[in-house]
Specification:
48% strand; Lipocalin; 25% helix; 148 residues; alpha+beta
Length: 148
């Protein structure tokens, strides 16, 4: 009798877990689809008071113009104590399974090797803002939409 009860309980737990996974997957897919529809436009990311270090910028500003197909052109400004570096990047943003997959195809930064790809978990999405946590780091980025 105890074995039958234990087997029944395990069966219920496994079934509930499977249902929860399917529900979670559907929710992620719905969020992805809604976010893809809002992705085209101009996005801004700024960071001030960055940690000091030799050759590191004090602040940065990036504008990323994203087309309906996910392709983008990004302009970045890195403010150092003695200069400002400006770069241009092109690539694609793809939203899939709760991640933003970024592929950088070209960059005017001579230190950046292209092409390369990275994945960031989409922490939250609002109408005019989203937050990313990049894989393998504790860094988060806040992007704000400044133009449709």
């Amino acid at each position: 009798m105890k074995k039958l009860t234990l087997i029944s309980l395990l069966s219920v737990i496994i079934s509930a877990g499977g249902l929860w996974l399917r529900y979670h997957e559907r929710m992620i897919q719905a969020r992805d689809a809604a976010f893809r529809g809002r992705l085209p436009g101009v996005w801004l990311r700024t960071e001030d008071g960055l940690p000091p270090g030799v050759g590191k910028p004090l602040s940065l500003r990036c504008t990323n113009t994203v087309a309906a197909d996910g392709s983008f052109v990004e302009r970045s400004w890195f403010s150092h104590p003695d200069r400002t570096n400006t770069y241009r990047r092109t690539g694609t943003w793809l939203v899939k399974n709760g991640y933003l997959l970024e592929t950088v195809k070209t960059s005017s930064n001579p230190c950046e090797v292209t092409p390369h790809s990275d994945a960031g978990w989409i922490d939250s999405v609002k109408t005019d803002e989203f937050v990313l946590s990049w894989s393998g780091t504790t860094n988060t980025q806040i992007w704000r939409k400044i133009s449709p």
